[in-house]
Amino acid sequence: MEMRGADGGTSDMLCALPAFWVGLLHDEDFLHNALDIIVHWTPEERQNLRNMAARALANLAAHGDSNSNNAAVGQEASALEALVQLTRSLSLSLSLSLSLSLSLM
User: Fold this and answer.
1) What is the pTM of this model?
2) Which helix (H) or strand (E) holds 33?
3) N or C: which end of the chain has fewer CB within 10 A?
4) Taking the CB of residue 17, how many other CB atoms lie within 10 A of it?
5) pLDDT digits (tens, 9 = 90+) for 24-38
6) Rounded distance, CA 42 to CA 18, Å?
C-alpha cells in the first residue's frame, strides 16, 4: 500500500494525518477486510481500481478552490459513498460504472 502525506492544509489536519494512517495500518479488522476485497483480483483489476480512484478523487477535489479542496471533498457525500462502493465491489463492470458516474459529477 502506498502512503502519501498531505500537500497542505490546516495544522490540525496535518497533525491528524499520521493518526489516520496508524489507525488504518494497525487495525487488524481493517487489514483483513481490505485483503478480502482484493484477494482474488488480477493485477489489471487492481491497477484499474487505482486509476479510477485517483480520477474520482481528482474530480471531487475540483469542487472548490485550491484552499478548500479537502472541505469540498468532504461535502460530496454521494460521490464519497460511490467511491466506497467502488472499492468494495468485486465486479469490474460495476467499478467502471461507478467510476463513470463519478467522472460526470
Assistant:
1) 0.38
2) helix 28-38
3) N
4) 14
5) 777 788 778 878 888
6) 30
